[in-house]
Design a protein that fits this description.
This is ABM domain-containing protein. By secondary structure, this protein is α+β, with helices and mostly antiparallel strands. It has helices at about 15-30, 55-65, 65-75; strands spanning about 1-10, 35-45, 50-55, 85-90. The protein has a single domain, classed as Alpha-Beta Plaits.
Length: about 90
Amino acid sequence: MAYLQITLQVEPGDRAAAAGVYEKYKEPFLGTVPGATSKELLVRDEDVQVLHGFATVADAQAYLGSALFTDDVVTALSPLLQAAPEVRVYDAA
């Protein structure tokens, strides 16, 4: 099991729009991305995080280079971001 954590700096007024991007791409992510097992939206006062579950670290890294991520998700989120996203991949023991 592996996790991809993406932390986004989004103004509170833009969080509904960011949640809309999450909702729009959740099913395509779970249905088409190899190794994808889960996707959760975590909202905190200071930021928004998207936690993706994968079968392997290689699956998580491959998703970061996929058209779904680079062409669709990144393009949709870019106008809402206040800073570059923080991306981390974890291998669960």
